[in-house]
Design brief:
Radius of gyration: 15 Å
CATH superfamily: 2,3-Dihydroxybiphenyl 1,2-Dioxygenase, domain 1
Low-confidence stretches: none
CATH class: Alpha Beta
Distance between the termini: 33 Å
Number of domains: 1
Order of helices and strands: EHEEEEHEEE
Helix content: 10-25%
Strand content: 35-45%
Mean pLDDT: 89
CATH topology: 2,3-Dihydroxybiphenyl 1,2-Dioxygenase, domain 1
Length: 112
């Protein structure tokens, strides 16, 4: 069985995109490999999210993330990035600065 362990997003607004994903809980470090471009990388479990600069228009990928507390996350992002929030299901639809849609769901809380 295969699993995704790397997602690379290309952007012409790298600092703005980095700040947006940091507000979703990703902790980025700046990297540069040899003569390659300066970029950002964040680990989330087995997944690495990397942000690379580009001058081309980014693709319109859609991402999905799970968080411990969706209300806290929504309070930390710019309200203009929130396309919708469903209270009952604890799910939200966000849009990043490049127009990518992000499905956010709250992790199920285990009974005490």
């Amino acid at each position: 069985m295969a699993h995704i362990d790397l997602i690379v997003l290309y952007t012409s607004h790298i600092e703005r995109l980095c700040a947006f994903y940091a507000s979703l809980g990703f902790r980025f470090v700046e990297e540069q490999h040899g003569g390659g471009p300066r970029h950002y990388a964040a680990s989330a479990g087995d997944l690495v999210l990397e942000l690379y600069p580009t001058r081309k228009c980014p693709s319109r990928n859609r991402l999905g993330i799970s968080v411990d507390n969706i209300e806290a996350l929504l309070a930390s992002v710019d309200a203009g990035c929130v396309l919708g929030y469903e209270v009952q299901s604890k799910t939200a639809l966000l849009i990043d600065p490049d127009g990518r849609r992000i499905d956010v769901k709250q992790l199920r809380q285990k009974p005490a």
